[in-house]
Design brief:
The chain has 224 residues and is of the alpha+beta class. It is built from 9 helices and 4 strands; from the N terminus they run ααβαααβαβααβα. Bound molecules: flavin mononucleotide.
Length: 224
C-alpha cells in the first residue's frame, strides 16, 4: 500500500455540511460499515451499534428533531461532552472554530436568528439523504466510548474513500429521547452521536471549511 495515498484520505476528511439529494446505495453503505467494523476494540468487544436512517424515517426523525429545536426543548444527552471544565485552550479552539465557520457563512456574531438557523441545519441533517445513529448499551464505560470513536472514524474515512462526505453530530445526541422514540430503540441504548452523510454539494462554500490544526510540536512529546 502506498502510505501517502492512505494518508491523503485522512487529510481529505473534513466535515461536509451541504449535500446533493443523490441517494447512496445500500451496497456502498454496507461496504463502508463492514470495513469500519474492523476497528480495534478492547478484547475485541466490538461494542458499537449503528442504525442507518434513510427515506421516510429520515424525514420523520429530522422533523421531530426540528420541532424540538424550534420549540426550545433543552437538549438532554445521555452522557457529558462538555469542554467545561477543561483547559482554557480547548474552549479557545472551539470558539475560534465556531466564529470562523460563521464568518465563512456570512453570519454576524450578534445575528441571533441567523445563528439559530445555522443550528437548525444540524436537525435538517444538512440536507443529507442518510443519517446514522451510533449507540452503545446504557452504562457503557469510557473505554467503550473510545472503541466507538475508532469505529466512527473508520466510517468517516470509508465515506471519504467512496467520494462521499459526512459530519458527526453530537447535537443530535442531545435529543436522545426523541431519537429513541422515533427509531423504536430500547431505552437501554445510549445515543452517542449522529452522522449525516451523502454526496457533498460541490458548490457549497461551507464545504470548503477546514478548521486550523495544531503543529506537531503542540501535541507531541518525545520520550527516549
Ligand atoms: C463527536 C463529534 C460530534 C460533533 N458534533 C457536531 C455537531 O453537532 N454539529 C456540527 O456541525 N459539527 C459537529 N462536529 C464536527 C466538528 O465540529 C469538527 O469535526 C471539527 O470542527 C473539526 O473539523 P473537521 O472535522 O471538518 O476537520 C462533531 C465532531 C465530533 C467528533
Amino acid at each position: 500500500m502506498n502510505p501517502a495515498e492512505f494518508l491523503s484520505v485522512i487529510y481529505a476528511r473534513h466535515c461536509q455540511r451541504a449535500f446533493t439529494s443523490e441517494t447512496v446505495s445500500r451496497e456502498m453503505l454496507e461496504a463502508i460499515l463492514l470495513a469500519a467494523g474492523q476497528a480495534p476494540s478492547g478484547k475485541n468487544s466490538q461494542p458499537w451499534h449503528v442504525t442507518v436512517v434513510t427515506g421516510g424515517k429520515r424525514d420523520q426523525l429530522s422533523s421531530a428533531l426540528c420541532d424540538a429545536y424550534d420549540g426550545g426543548v433543552k437538549p438532554k444527552p445521555d452522557y457529558d461532552y462538555s469542554l467545561m471544565p477543561g483547559p482554557e485552550q480547548w474552549l479557545a479552539r472551539a470558539r475560534n472554530c465556531g466564529y470562523s465557520l460563521f464568518e465563512l457563512k456570512g453570519i454576524a456574531r450578534d445575528d441571533i436568528p441567523a445563528r439559530k438557523a445555522h443550528g437548525r441545519e444540524n436537525f435538517e441533517f444538512f440536507g443529507a439523504p442518510v443519517h446514522m445513529i451510533f449507540h452503545l448499551p446504557a452504562g457503557s464505560e469510557r473505554g467503550n466510548f473510545l472503541d466507538m470513536g475508532m469505529f466512527m472514524q473508520n466510517v468517516m474515512l470509508g465515506i471519504t474513500a467512496h467520494g462521499l462526505g459526512g459530519c458527526p453530530q453530537f447535537s443530535v445526541a442531545g435529543y436522545a429521547d426523541i431519537v429513541r422514540l422515533t427509531l423504536g430503540l430500547d431505552p437501554d441504548q445510549w445515543i452517542v452521536s449522529g452522522l449525516s452523510l451523502g454526496y457533498s454539494d460541490p458548490h457549497a462554500k461551507v464545504n470548503t471549511f477546514v478548521p486550523e490544526r495544531l503543529a506537531l510540536k503542540d501535541f507531541v512529546s518525545w520520550s527516549a
